[in-house]
């Protein structure tokens, strides 16, 4: 089967979508049909430039920054089109050429004009204004003085819903997201991760280590964690907070840490290589994932669950679904609640150990990479068979 993957962002760009798409595409390209032939002849199309990334190392073809004509030709020569997020060009071209189109939703673009499900600039979770018909609230969100740009995003949300309603399938990584987007032919296929990470026993240093890992952008909620750290310091607790990751808001966040008088206990270490990351996390007492919005699965959450680390996450629907009883949650955006949950784990090493063990088992049972690959392959076979009959 000739399978075309379209992902606007791809390696060498770094992010959750890029990680999942690379893992899925690699796994599908390595599946074998009878006589040891590849089951899927896969081409990945992306708008991301290669820079110093060597596409020849991948087990599939990569087409970067194609013209509309080249994209159309690639789609016409495929049996099926998989679109990572409701990107308009491949969706329209796939439907016009009669190719079965599968949309995998990595965000909220079909129910939120900004795609984040976050009310800005207040930075609070959106209660679902678009789907509830409160469209003036959508137009005000992030509009600033540019109502034209806000109106364009709002109109495109209707277009994306119209196109996705005509897709052969809409894949979501969590049941929670499937309930929100309210589209036909929704199928939940959780993201999968390679289950080879060693278990990390909860640390018991004289100075507990709290870890944040993620991009330094508003939606990841680091200011809430910094405020919680300030509360813990006011209670005369000793700890260190390591901030792993980088992003456009790093300088502002470092300024906030200084303003909260946390310079002595907060370190911004930037991006870390795999070996450095494992070494850092081996010392962690707890990992905090305080996202405010924009999350449909939580790859950092799952990866650290696999390591057997105790997790505290905001109570976004996807985090609650992934964690279940294998971690603690706090009210999204509430620094006092987060501080209380951190304190409860730091004071109870037995609880931290139990949660870490449950988390690791949960990933092995429900979220291994092979399940993700097999479920996608089954879906493609079903859709292709139906299209041929």
Can you describe what's shown?
- With 389 residues, the protein is an alpha/beta fold.
- It folds into two domains: 211 residues, Glycogen Phosphorylase B (Rossmann fold, 3-Layer(aba) Sandwich), CATH 3.40.50; 158 residues, 3-Layer(aba) Sandwich (Rossmann fold), CATH 3.40.50.
- Helices cover 41% and strands 16% of the residues.
- The chain is built from 14 helices and 15 strands.
- The strands form three sheets. The protein has a seven-stranded parallel sheet, sandwiched between helices. It has a six-stranded parallel sheet with strand order 12-11-10-13-14-15, with helices on both faces. A two-stranded antiparallel sheet has the order 6-7.
- Helix 7 crosses helix 12 and helix 10 packs across helix 13.
- The model has no long low-confidence stretch (mean pLDDT 94).
User: Biggest β-sheet: count, sense, barrel?
Assistant: 7 strands, parallel
- Total helices: the number is 14
CATH-defined topology of the largest domain: Rossmann fold
CATH superfamily of the largest domain: Glycogen Phosphorylase B
- So what's the overall shape? globular
Entry keywords:
single chain, Rossmann fold, 2 domains, seven-stranded parallel β-sheet, 15 strands
Question: What topology emerges from the helices and strands here?
Answer:
Blueprint: E1 2-6, H1 16-29, E2 41-46, E3 61-64, H2 68-76, E4 80-84, H3 88-96, E5 101-104, E6 118-119, E7 124-125, H4 135-140, H5 147-164, E8 169-172, H6 175-181, E9 186-188, E10 209-213, H7 222-234, E11 240-244, H8 250-259, E12 266-270, H9 274-281, E13 286-289, H10 299-306, E14 311-314, H11 317-323, E15 328-330, H12 335-346, H13 349-366, H14 369-388
Helix pairs in contact: 1-14, 2-3, 3-5, 7-12, 10-13
